[in-house]
C-alpha cells in the first residue's frame, strides 16, 4: 500500500468519510499524508480540551498541517461544559496557543471564534497572521485589536461581531477597509462604521439604549447603501415600526429590496393600512417578517391568512411571510398556487437566517 503513487492514495482518501479518514490515516504513512489535508481542512473545536489538542496538532512538526486548514471553528459548546473542560476561565497561555495556531493557518478562509469572556480579541492583532478570510463570525468585542485585524482583511465577504465594551469607545474603521464586504450581522452602533462597505445583506441588533438611534442609521443607509437587498432589524420598538418602513420606502435601495424584517405589526388596526401602502413602494420585495407577539389576542392561523392576503393585495411580489409570536414562528409560503405554513417552536430571531437568502 505504501508503494502506491500519491495520486492513487489521494483518490482513496477522497472517498472516505470524515470519521473514516482518521482510521485511514493510521494504516500507513502514505495514507496518512493523503488523508491529513482532508482531516485538517475543516476543524471544529467545541471545548477547551479539543481546542488545546487541536491547536497543538497544528503546531507540531514545524506546523506543516496549518496550511491544510480552510475552515476553523472555535467555540464553547454548552453541552460540553464541565468544571475542567471550560475555557471561560482559561489562562492567557491558552489563548496564546490559539494565536500561534492562527498564525500558522495561512490558507484559512472561514473562521468562527467565540470568546465567552469577550476579552481576548488581541489574539487577532498580530503582524504574522497572513490569512485572508472570506467569512468571519467573531464573538469578540469591537475594540482596537478587532478593528486593526479587520483592516487587513481585503477579501472578507461576510462578518458577524459583538458590540464594543460598555466601558470602552467605539473604534472607527478606516474608510477604505473591508472593500468587498457584502453581509454583516451585529450591533446597531457598529453598522455606522460600515456605511462605506458595499453591503447586500444586513442584520442589525438594537437594545433599549440604542433603539432610538435606529431611524438615524436607517436614514444613513437610505442615502448611501445602493447595494442593499436584505434588511433585518432586531429589537425594533413597535412605536418606530411605521417610521422605519417609511424611511425604507424612500431609500436608494427601495426599488431593489427583496427582504425586510422583523417589523412589529402596529397594535392599532387602523395603522395596518399605513404599513400596507408603504409596501406598495417596494416592487421587488419577496419576503417579509412581522412580529405580532404584542397583539392581543394573538393572531390565529385564520387571522394570519387574512393578513397575508391583505399584504399580497398591496405587495403582490411577496412569496413568503413570517409571523413571530415570542418563540413561535409561522412561515407562510406559496406552493403550487396554495398558501400554507410551517409552525416551529423554540425559535430565536437572532439565530434565524432568512435575511441571508
TrEMBL record:
It holds the Pfam family F-box-like. Residues 1-43 form the F-box domain. This is F-box domain-containing protein.
